[in-house]
Amino acid sequence: MSRKTPEMIDKVIELLTAQLGVLQRREDDFTRILEDMTRLQSSVRAEREALGSKITELESQKQPINWLPTELLVEIFLIRTEDESTDMTVGLPYNPAPVVISHVCHKWRQLTLATSRLWSFISYRTSHWRPQLLSVFLQRAESSPISFNFISTPSTGTSNNMNTSALEAATSIEVIRTLSYQRRRFRSLTFECGFAKSMEHILEGITRLYYPLHELESLDLAISTLDPSFEGTQLLASDRLSTDQSSPASSVTLRHLRLQQMPLSILPAFLVRSIRTLELSYSPKKSQSRRLHHFTFKISHLTNLLRYTPQLHELSLVGVTPAWDVITRHPTNGQLSLSHGATEPHNLVVVSSFELPELKHLEWKYAYHRDVFPLMSLIVLPRLERWDLFIAQSPTKRSDATQFRGNHIHDQDSFIQAEPLSNVLVLHALQELDVNCQNEDTLGSSLRQFLFPSLAKLDVTFVGQHIRKASGLPSLPRLESIFRDPRLPHLTHLSISNFDISPGHGKSMLGYMPNLLSLTFGTCTGVNVVLDALAEAYGCAPTTGGVRTRSCGVRVCPRLEDLILWSCPDFDFRTLWSTVHARSLAPDDAGDEPRKEALEAEVFASAVLGRKIRPLKKTHSSGARPSQQHLDPSGLWASTSSRSTLIPMQEALHPSRLACLHLEDCPQISHHEALSLGRWGTMVIYR
């Protein structure tokens, strides 16, 4: 084989180089085509994803929940996160609301993780220490103000209470240590423990960390066990609040304080000066026998605490049955008198009445009637507007000497006491009174020494059916037996529940309420008595033709507009019809023509009274009347106490129309009968 010459090799190389260039150009074309295809593929994919997201968005618009804007969704989530009273929290050591919301859909998960406020409501419900539960929520809460709840309720009746107490105490120490790094962010703190030892560690941490807690507005300290033992703690060492003059009282922001089964002197005085709402909750005690290492609620404890709360607006006492260990100093003569229940003159505390100038709402649940007036007489309440009172049945076994029946001024159990006028308390600003009782006799013994000159709403309910031995409902006492002054000229709303209205009581009761606008009876018997009183005519007057006479006007409550009856089984349709008809502006039974206004009030009055009524002449004095606010306070009270409950004749002859009649669970009245009352211009609600 002949060897190729260099010229031949160069020609072959030149040929191959030309072919290689062609292939390179073709490869570049293919690369450019592939890039264009990839670009087209990416654009198609992006367009497909955009169309898919639009379809998903349109599909989501079918659900009304997705119509809401993001800001409104966040507010709804916050409301759900704040509420931990549902069954969702049972058995979980943390607040599950933000976790559950984040698992609904992708949109809600992004929204939940981006909203730090949803993670600021932190709950820790276990006596075992699990740091990861706190770290996740604290991290996601970022810089939002924190509301923290520590609830550790050990199971009762276990044999290892010592181990449970030690475990809970150790966990409380770790919780306080972890929270100390976030102390400037706390808005609300709630600690509910099963043992007093754990609460002692928590109180030490709060006292130590309070100075940086400038944003704290609510504090809740509770022991879940009934009548807990404080053995091994120093919580009962002091009976008075500590007063540290170096405390920064000006920086205190605490507004709400709740103590459950806790001593009242556990917090420093500067901490309670700014609170607006105070709730004290304890298990009621039937006897005041003292047990070692157990807390005894004393009146001296309560008065010492309330003296440091000048800004208090709402006070709630739940199960407070205090032991009376005080001697009252009269502000007028400075003499000392033994307060009710304080039978032993040893180790008594001398107290004087004090004022809560801003208190507007007082709630006292499960109060013994013998304690109501003595406690209220210690506190001056110039702005009290609402009083909710639950009067419990006193224990049958009584050890106090003051519990024997007799003529004792300071004995609230005595139904024949002859208290002097100095033992009468006037609540000038009180407008709403809600009274619940377990024994009808306690109404008078609890309220007999009070005067309510401005009372506008009264609600009386009997709640002692479970302890009542007699069958049937108890009889409602007469107003003269309940109140020292039964006249209620400013009363506009009256509600009575679970009582029997005695014959003759309806008219006498309503006669004290000339300005009543709304009347409610719930689960009452004897309602016919009240309806008869409401339907009683003022008198008879001739019709426009003068042929015959007809009844006109009413005797009681001419301004009544709303009548509500629920679960009242013993009144009939005839009496109800008479009540509505007597207060209607419709024609009488003889005809259907509208009543003419030509018959004036004096014509009615002349016909009813049998003599001509002439209007009084106008006085010559045209000067303006002095304003009520410049009158002497003593004179103002005198005029208020002597105000008459007589009804003006103009109102008696022209009563207001009964605007609304509400019937619920009254089977003796049929639906057709109820709706037939609408022809008199009354709106009827039948259920």
Automatic annotation (TrEMBL):
Biased composition, class Polar residues, residue ranges: 621-636
Highest taxon, organism lineage: Eukaryota
Chain intervals for the UniProt region annotation (Disordered): 617-636
The name this protein goes by in its record: F-box domain-containing protein
Organism: Boletus reticuloceps
The organism's taxonomic lineage, starting at the top: Eukaryota, Fungi, Dikarya, Basidiomycota, Agaricomycotina
